[in-house]
Amino acid sequence: xxxxxRLLNDALSPYQASLDVEDANGxxxxxxxxxxxxxxxxxxxxxYQLQEQRLLIDLxxxxxxxxxxxxxxxxPCVIAALQQRQQPQGTFA
Length: 93
Known about the structure:
The chain is of the alpha+beta class. The protein is built from four helices and three strands, in the order αβββααα.
């Protein structure tokens, strides 16, 4: 798990990530701290998300997006508009 934490810290720099111990369901609490040491985000992540490369990449991408929202650099409505624009025409979600 130490290696995963280092990878998360590298990917989220200048933020720092911390993983709590595994709970009874195999999940961990992931906390991302800003440069002042204040918790900016908290997520519950599964062991599978941390071990499967594709899911880990998706997790980091989501954390980047959420950090941009927290920082005020990205509005949630912009994300929704982008997602809607990316859907093929005639496809409904």
